[in-house]
Design goal:
single chain, Beta-Lactamase, Heat Shock Protein 90, five-stranded mixed β-sheet, 51% helix, transmembrane helix, EC 2.7.13.3
């Protein structure tokens, strides 16, 4: 009986070992597929990001032409040189400007280019429009940077070349960046595949709503020229190509009804054709293939990637062999253990001991959980106390500022009232002594009394305004109620309560908040945010400076959204400080008046109560800009009270 149990345990162990080996093989295959997919996604993502970077640069140049459409060769050369793209984002062949030239103006255009001395003192006497054609209009490459290595493209009439003309007309009518199909660049003697992406440039102050209007306003294109092999050499890591094959095929314009190109006309890139890269040998591994579609200038590129066997995409047989040997040994040992009664009893005793130890560990875990609950409750209470202290400190600062600000108008009123009382008594004395007064004396007394009344009226009006602003801010912050309010009034009231502190710190305030921006939200929460931002600027931004400037700007950019910008020209923040600016209890003024809760509370109020977003931008020595994007009508539902986000 005992022997049969041993055999049964042995065969069961062998079965479990085989199942484990199979599981390891499947897991290794899945890991290889995951590694390949991650590499394939990286190649596709890097290519898309690099192309988007070039296209963003192209739109930037287009934006320059939108401001001033008469940019000469020297200005174009300086602007492209300042971009330093050859060092920052290498991989392109040239940046060009293509001018639309009517056929009647072709001769005058050629003469103007030949005599252009903005860069070359001798001009370009050898300039020639090529190939010669009779058409209207001409699309001629006028500027190309760099010119060296791209001389053949200088003066090229793209209207005479069908692939270029099709892309130009599509970009002209759509107003978008449009790429050509696979072409061979005129400046490339190697015959490598290339393409050109162009953005149309229109005359300023002309309507562009329809295709006909865009055709009438068109006067040129800005373009970036690529050799695909050079571009992909910058995008894909060369060591990665030793384990995979990358091919890019052009499927044509995504909204075109024409048949897509095929064969050699469609292939833009094949890593297997690059002699400088050690290519993988053999056939692609089963399951290691990926295909992704990239949208490049209105064209659809198909990115096909295959993985090959090697150090990167291979599974090692060693773990499987090791598991098999160990499983065989363990199965034999378990079988021998079951045969031996003594060993079974020892195992039972060991199991009982393990169960007792497990029970003790369970008791320890329960005790630890109970202790953790107490600590969590204590931490919650401490959090509530900290938030209350922070709010009371903010209100205390408001009270102190308003009290200091009220001293001046009330003091002026008291002084003027005393002076007026003295003048009245003097007037009564003179009236009693003389029995009558001259008209000039009466008029002088009335003028002085009127002036005193004006002084007291203006001073008390100033005090009343301050009290009204403080009362509104205090009520809003204390109640936290939702109501309709005007943004300019909340900003004005909040700044009024801080006027004394701002003036004492020599801080100038510039406000550009349009009237009529009416919100249905929580004015107290918004005032709390502004108060914390002002306090941060005074405590951190202008630390060690005699003065500074704060700018508050609001713009109604979307239908129901307002962008509120709070900026200062203070000392700014380092990258590490900016990274932790919203962390609770993080402050650069620990023990010097900073609690580390201000910006954390600002973040939670903006994203919780106000249901908006917040972004902070700062550099050392260049000040700090806080951008709030707030809905003019807060979403319905219970607002989220600000709390520490630990």
């Amino acid at each position: 009986m005992k022997r049969s149990r041993g055999y049964l345990a042995f065969f069961l162990g062998i079965f479990l070992t085989a199942a484990t080996c199979y599981f390891v093989v499947v897991t290794q295959r899945q890991q290889v597929q995951a590694n390949f997919q991650r590499d394939a996604d990286k190649v596709a993502r890097d290519a898309e990001v690099r192309l988007q970077t070039y296209f963003d640069m192209l739109l930037g140049i287009k934006g320059v032409y939108a401001l001033e459409d008469r940019i000469d060769r020297g200005s174009f050369h300086r602007f492209v040189a300042e971009l330093k793209l050859d060092r920052r984002y290498p991989g392109f062949q040239a940046i060009q400007f293509v001018r639309v030239v009517p056929d009647a103006q072709l001769a005058a255009f050629s003469a103007a280019v030949k005599g252009d001395t903005a860069i070359e003192a001798a001009g370009y006497p050898g300039f020639q429009v090529h190939p010669a054609s009779r058409r209207d209009p001409h699309y001629i490459i006028e500027y190309t940077e760099p010119l060296k290595g791209n001389e053949n493209a200088f003066g090229l009439d793209l209207g005479a070349l069908a692939p270029h003309l099709k892309a130009l007309e599509l970009g002209r009518d759509s107003g978008e960046i449009v790429a050509t199909e696979r072409i061979t660049l005129v400046q490339d003697a190697s015959g490598q595949p290339g393409f050109v992406a162009r953005a149309p440039v229109y005359r300023a102050a002309m309507p562009l709503q329809t295709a006909e209007q865009r055709r009438a306003a068109l006067f040129g294109f800005v373009a970036i020229v690529f050799r695909v092999n050079t571009l992909m050499r910058e995008v894909v890591d060369a060591p990665l190509l030793e384990h995979m094959r990358v091919r890019i095929a052009d499927d044509g314009y995504y909204d075109s009804k024409d048949a897509p190109p095929s064969g050699a006309d469609a292939l833009l890139y094949d890593s297997a054709a690059l002699a400088a890269i050690r290519q993988p040998r053999g056939a692609a591994l089963e399951g290691l293939s990926s295909q992704k579609a990239l949208m490049v200038g209105q064209r659809r590129w198909q990115l096909r990637i295959e993985g090959y066997a090697g150090a990167r995409y291979s599974s090692s047989p060693l773990p499987v062999l090791l598991i098999g040997v160990v499983g065989l040994i363990i199965s034999a040992l378990i079988a021998a253990l079951l045969v031996s009664t003594r060993r079974v009893i020892d195992a039972k005793h060991g199991l009982e001991y393990s169960l007792a130890e497990l029970e003790r560990q369970k008791s320890n875990v329960e005790q630890a959980r109970s202790d953790l609950s107490v600590v969590a409750e204590t931490l919650k209470q401490a959090q509530t106390n900290l938030l209350t202290s922070e709010k009371m400190a903010s209100l205390g600062a408001l009270v102190a500022g308003v009290a200091h600000e009220l001293n001046t108008p009330i003091g002026n009123s008291l002084l003027t009232a005393s002076a007026l009382s003295d003048m009245v008594r003097d007037f009564e004395r003179r009236l009693a002594a003389d029995g009558g007064l001259k008209r000039s004396v009466l008029e002088a007394h009335l003028a002085d009394a009127r002036k005193a009344c004006d002084i007291m009226g203006s001073s008390l009006m100033r005090a009343a305004d301050l009290i009204t602003s403080f009362k509104q801010v205090a009520v809003d912050q204390a109640s936290g109620q939702r109501r309709r309010f005007r943004l300019d009034e909340v900003v004005h009231d909040t700044l009024a309560t801080y006027a004394a502190q701002l003036r004492r710190n020599g801080c100038a305030v510039h406000v550009d908040v349009p009237a009529g921006l009416e919100f249905d939200s929580y004015p107290g929460s918004l005032s709390q945010v502004l108060s914390n931002l002002i306090g941060n600027a005074l405590l951190h931004g202008f630390d060690g400076r005699d003065g500074g400037a704060i700018t508050v700007v609001a713009r109604h950019e979307e239908v129901d959204t307002v962008t509120l910008t709070f900026a200062d020209n203070g000392v700014g923040m380092t990258a590490s400080t900016l990274h932790k600016v919203f962390d609770p209890f993080f402050t650069t003024k620990l023990g010097q008046g900073g609690s580390g809760l201000g910006m954390n509370i600002v973040y939670n109020i903006v994203t919780g109560m106000l249901r908006g977003t917040i972004r902070v931008e700062s550099e050392p020595g260049r000040g700090t800009t806080v951008t709030l994007v707030l809905p003019m009508r807060a979403p319905e539902g219970a607002p989220q009270e600000p709390a520490l986000q630990l």
